[in-house]
Design goal:
Helix content: 55-70%
Strand content: under 5%
Domain At2g35280-like TPR: 45-138
Shape: globular
InterPro entries: At1g67623-like, At2g35280_TPR_dom
Number of strands: 0
Structural class: mainly alpha
Number of helices: 11
Organism: Brassica carinata (Ethiopian mustard)
Protein name: At2g35280-like TPR domain-containing protein
Region (Disordered): 1-21
Distance between the termini: 37 Å
Length: 194
């Protein structure tokens, strides 16, 4: 319905029915897709035209959802990374979080760390925590996200993490932070699989 009615602007004067100056570029770029972030499969199956328009006009949430669907549902990593990167570069924080997570899970540790660092977690850990909660909520709606390589990456990253305070909740060093994010993701994905 939104696709067909983008000229309807509820904030405008209802007596003025001339919406010929409405710009679909602005509408689709700024359209909130929060519902579909929580239910990405509906974006894939029921709203093809809305999906196409949002992507065409650079909607960040649209790119984020498309990245998740491409990576986890269509199993197209290149397309998934492209769309997640578009969302992240545009300023969508959950995009940076998921990119970092996937890079760690694919044993591209340096790249994953750099992506996580875009969230400035060292100065404000709550941003990362909020991103994690939203990403996990979205991923909980998709079946079969686990890949055996993720577990291997977690074990390898643990071996590379040189810290004797891994289990301390009041101290978190760089290595511990990245390992903890990957470990929580792998445990989450394994529970989704069962």
């Amino acid at each position: 319905m939104s696709v067909n009615n983008y000229n309807n602007n509820p904030s405008s004067d209802s007596s003025n029915n001339d919406h010929s100056s409405s710009d679909p570029n602005i509408y689709f770029r700024n359209l909130s897709l929060a519902y579909f972030v929580a239910q990405p499969m509906e974006f894939l199956t029921k709203h093809k035209r809305l999906r196409e328009e949002c992507l065409k006009h650079g909607n960040l949430e649209g790119h984020y959802i498309e990245g998740i669907l491409a990576f986890f549902v269509e199993k197209d990593k290149s397309k998934g990374f492209f769309h997640l990167r578009q969302a992240a570069i545009g300023g969508y924080r959950d995009g940076w979080y998921l990119l970092g997570l996937l890079m760690l899970a694919l044993e591209r540790f340096y790249k994953g760390e750099k992506d996580f660092d875009k969230l400035q977690w060292k100065t404000n850990l709550s941003v990362s925590d909020h991103c994690k909660a939203r990403v996990m909520k979205t991923l909980s709606t998709i079946c079969g996200i686990m890949n055996a390589g993720y577990y291997t990456a977690m074990v390898n990253l643990e071996c590379l993490t040189k810290c004797d305070q891994k289990n301390s909740s009041n101290h978190i060093c760089d290595g511990c932070y990245y390992y903890k994010q990957l470990k929580e993701f792998v445990e989450f994905a394994m529970n989704q699989y069962n």
